């Protein structure tokens, strides 16, 4: 991978956080305003936690991206309230996953349903991300996720890939996405500089039921952390360098899953940039 590609991706990387107590203060302490911060939505932490965290981050000068998990939203009236609330907070970007709420709150079965409703509103969102799955979803068949990506492409501005630890899989998956005719820019999801003990502590903060789901969903993370040498995000990026360098693959940025390890992630990112030399580039939007 070229140094210019790596510098661009690290400079513009966005962080994903869970809306736990104290996360806003930690972000403010360690991350410079202007960076894009996405805020997850989960039944254990509530959608209110997602929205209020996003509002606080936006007010502090970050570019907040709340996750509007479709299955957690009761229907169009609630969605309208959310849109109005985010407009008031000057939030102009969102991420729309289906979410894990089972059963759904009642309004939307999946992300596509919500996106269709959203498209008929005077919503202020300039940037709308949707999920892409390099690996099989734990409960949704591959043919369904592939079709969903195709169905959502007209309502979104970019794709955000789910966490994957297999660089060979990423290297083959991205060309397949493009071969299917999905041309949306891709923000590649990678794990940040994560420590196993800290990851376990995050799980304990989000409720018993939710933490069980969290641990199950992130089994690969725990497994990789426990192996000798652990997981190194820089080595991962180097191994997918050919895809990142190829403009036809349309990898527009990095989405770093921090698991709320903000300090460790930001120190790692700055260290990598310092080794490359030169100033950080201006962040771009997808």
Automatic annotation (TrEMBL):
A Pfam family (short name) is MTHFR
- Asked whether the keyword Flavoprotein is assigned, the reply is yes
**Cited Gene3D superfamilies:** 3.20.20.220
| Highest taxon listed in the record's lineage | Bacteria
Cite the annotated pathway.
One-carbon metabolism; tetrahydrofolate interconversion
The cofactor named in the record is: FAD
Q: What are the alphabetically sorted keywords of the record?
A: FAD, Flavoprotein, Oxidoreductase
Q: Does the keyword Secreted apply?
A: no
Which reaction is this enzyme known to catalyze?
Answer: (6S)-5-methyl-5,6,7,8-tetrahydrofolate + NAD(+) = (6R)-5,10-methylene-5,6,7,8-tetrahydrofolate + NADH + H(+)
Q: What family does the entry list?
A: Belongs to the methylenetetrahydrofolate reductase family.
Q: What is this protein called?
A: Methylenetetrahydrofolate reductase
Source organism of this protein record: Brevibacterium sediminis
